[in-house]
Amino acid sequence: MSKLSTGSLCLTTLIEQAKKGHSAFSKADNGKIYFNITMWENDEPDKFGNQFSLSLNSKKEKRETEEKVYIGNCKYAEKKETPLNENDAKNLDLPDDLPF
């Protein structure tokens, strides 16, 4: 079963690191700029309930010399269901010939 996660990335940090030439960034033949990330699941959720953290993923030859750059976090999306109250249930427009 798939699980939906939501989170945020710091665009300011991404732009700063791209301008600095961080090795996680690359330009493809189509002219688009991509960046590689590392995502890990935390042992415990943080004070905001985030279960995952994200950082830029340096190229192998730069991992020892480039600083680790934290760029964001995410958590599993919560399924929000609101049960019908008695008035809502009475006002449902259901056909009378349902088999249940």
What is the strand and helix layout of this fold?
Blueprint: E1 5-9, H1 11-20, E2 25-27, E3 33-35, E4 37-41, E5 52-56, E6 70-76, H2 86-90
Antiparallel strand pairs: 1-6, 2-3, 4-5, 5-6
Tell me the strand percentage band. 25-35%
Cα gyration radius (Å): 23 Å
Mean pLDDT: 88
- Helix percentage: 10-25%
Task: Explain what you see.
This protein is of the alpha+beta class and 100 residues long. The protein has one domain. Helix content is 15%, strand content 28%. It has 2 helices and 6 strands; from the N terminus they run βαβββββα. A 4-stranded antiparallel sheet has the order 1-6-5-4. A hairpin with a 5-residue loop joins strand 2 and strand 3. The two termini are 30 Å apart.
Features of this protein?
elongated, four-stranded antiparallel sheet, 100 residues, 28% strand, alpha+beta
Brief summary of the model shown:
The chain contains two helices and six strands; from the N terminus they run βαβββββα. It is α+β, with helices and mostly antiparallel strands and 100 residues long. The chain is elongated and about 70 Å long.
